[in-house]
Fold this protein.
Amino acid sequence: MKSGSYIQHFNRLPKEGKYVIGQKVEDNIIVYQAFNPSIARYAIIHQKFGGEHYSFNRMSWIKPGFLWMMHRAGWASKDHQQHILAITISQIHFEEILKQATISSFDDALFDSREKWQQELAKTQVRLQWDPDHDPYGNKIARKAIQLGLKGEILRKFCTDWIIKIDDITPFVKEQYEYVKSKRLDALQVPVEEVIEIMDESICKRIGINITN
């Protein structure tokens, strides 16, 4: 995981709109999840998810945005979210997840009717939410952040077949949180992120991603 100045990060990225923002490593993308020690330990040792404490029968959420993950997990301070995992998957598989995604709230720009959206939502294995992104202090900003809830067969594929690498970045998270608590954003380091270009325009239209020029 490559990190850099938060100030540069803030200045580099769009201030509003709906974009997939995350860190690319060659043709791969890093997404984040937070777990309790038992699940995290198994994932690091086996480089996949499973074991007696992990359930494949519930929806599991992945987030490509580091600061959105930090807001959700309280910088690794919330119960059952004490370990932050950086999970590398290929962009091909990430886009496969997006292809199957249905937005979690009705949008008449994306669906002809509420009934059609409800039908899609009932059968989807991937639920997509556009939420306000957050600054390091947890304040909402105008730009939207994407998170993806996976269940069923696509969750199993993600957990056992599609993962290239899992890193426990909790020590990095806790180190950087000290700068947040002391209000030293000039010293804060975050993963170097960019707008992930989604080449398939049908995906962009399906889930409402803003297309960069």
In short: The first helix runs from residue 6 to 12.
